[in-house]
Each structure stands twice: as structure tokens, then as C-alpha cells.
Design goal:
Blueprint: H1 6-29, H2 33-54, H3 61-86, H4 88-91, H5 102-127, H6 131-153, H7 157-178, H8 184-212
Helix pairs in contact: 1-2, 1-6, 2-3, 2-7, 3-8, 5-6, 6-7, 7-8
């Protein structure tokens, strides 16, 4: 039996949701690769904490498994994979190239977060007005939209990968209240796919940077076959 009352758990989960959303905004606003990675790690930790809190009362073994899998894979394994495949590319403090400037991106991100709230409202009424759903569903949807926006405006491979991973975090943040009894095998399958994706993108990005000196996706057009070969 949990030592925390349901009201305390709900308040802590709301706080965790706020930190999750702040981390999503941080991924949008940060111009350094290391900063983006740190915000992704913070967002992943918030996801794991939310799963843990929601699994306390009533106790859910599935959510506890999601918490353990998430805390091992996303804040630990993914940064490790990126470090091994990309080396110093991950930890340099150089600025990331993107389509729009930071103030404009933050304004658009704010609009997307508000839009997520309005889009989630009918879903909340359809699935139930529990405190957890009211918190996790709109914030999770906002995480998906902000991750999509990050994927669209960033010009470099690693920040685009983090935008894609942030979308997945947002989907799971909402999913743990919609389907709390989802078997852990589903989370393991998604986690395995995410790790493979991080590995492949890391290897390809390192190869691209080695050949053309940049990780900007737009520069891929310059990778043309040498006619003399």
C-alpha cells in the first residue's frame, strides 16, 4: 500500500507533467546539441516518474515495468549509444542550425501547446475526467506536437532525431493513462526500435560529418557520386 495519498500522488504527477512540458520547450529553444540531449534526458526522467506515480495507487505492475524500462533505456542507453557512435559530435557546444529563430520558435511552440489542450479536451471527456487523464493527455499531446515541430525546423540530424524521440515520449506520456495495463513487452519493443534508430542515425551522421564536414541534413544533396569512379 502506498504511503502517499491519491491527492498527493496527483499533485506530484501534475508537477512532473509541468517539468515534462518545460523539457519539451527546452528542446525547441536550445541551440546546443548537448543542451538538447540534456533536455531529452530530463523529459525521459519525467516520463518515468509519472509512470511510477500513476502505478502507486492503484498499484500497477505494468506501469512500474514501464518506469524501469524507461529509466534504463532513455536517460542512460540512448545517450551512451549516441556518444559511442558520434563521439564528440554529441558533446560539442556549437550552435544548431534551424529554419526559424528561437523567439519565433517559442511563440509557435506556445501556440502548439495551447492547441494540444483544446484537441485533448474532447478526448478527456470521452475517456474519463480523472485527474491523471486531465494532466497526462494534453501534456502528452503537446509533447508530440512540439517534437514534430522540432523535427521540422531543425536542420541537423541529431536534433531531428531528438525531436522524433520527444514525439515518442509525448505519445507514451499520454498512453500511460489511456492504457495503463499495456504489457511491458510493448514498451520493450518500442524501446528496442528507438535504440536501433539512435544507433543507425548516430553511425550515419558520423559518416556524413566525416565526408562533408557538417551534420546539416540539407547538405546531403552534395553527396553525389564521383563521376571519375
Amino acid at each position: 500500500m502506498s504511503l502517499l495519498s491519491p491527492s498527493v500522488i496527483n499533485n506530484l504527477n501534475a508537477l512532473t507533467g509541468g517539468l515534462f512540458l518545460i523539457a519539451a520547450f527546452g528542446i525547441v529553444a536550445t541551440r546546443q546539441m548537448l543542451g538538447c540531449l540534456r533536455f531529452y534526458v530530463a523529459q525521459s526522467v519525467a516520463l518515468a516518474v509519472s509512470a511510477f506515480l500513476l502505478g502507486l495507487h492503484p498499484f500497477s505492475r505494468h506501469l512500474m515495468e514501464v518506469c524501469i524500462i524507461t529509466i534504463i533505456s532513455k536517460p542512460i542507453l540512448i545517450p551512451w549509444v549516441l556518444k559511442k557512435t558520434m563521439g564528440k559530435q554529441v558533446y560539442t557546444r556549437r550552435e544548431i542550425s534551424q529554419v526559424l529563430n528561437i523567439p519565433t520558435s517559442l511563440l509557435i511552440a506556445m501556440v502548439l501547446a495551447i492547441l494540444a489542450y483544446f484537441l485533448a479536451t474532447p478526448l478527456i471527456h470521452a475517456t474519463g475526467d480523472s485527474r491523471a487523464i486531465v494532466v497526462n493527455l494534453p501534456i502528452g499531446l503537446a509533447g508530440v506536437l512540439l517534437g514534430t515541430y522540432t523535427l521540422a525546423v531543425r536542420r541537423e540530424a541529431l536534433p531531428q532525431l531528438l525531436g522524433l524521440l520527444a514525439m515518442e515520449n509525448g505519445a507514451f506520456f499520454a498512453g500511460i493513462v489511456i492504457a495503463p495495463d499495456l504489457p511491458a513487452i510493448a514498451e520493450l519493443a518500442v524501446t528496442f526500435d528507438v535504440l536501433i534508430l539512435a544507433l543507425v542515425v548516430g553511425v550515419l551522421t558520423k559518416a556524413i560529418a566525416k565526408h562533408i564536414g557538417t551534420t546539416e541534413v540539407g547538405e546531403l544533396a552534395s553527396l553525389k557520386e564521383d563521376a571519375s569512379l
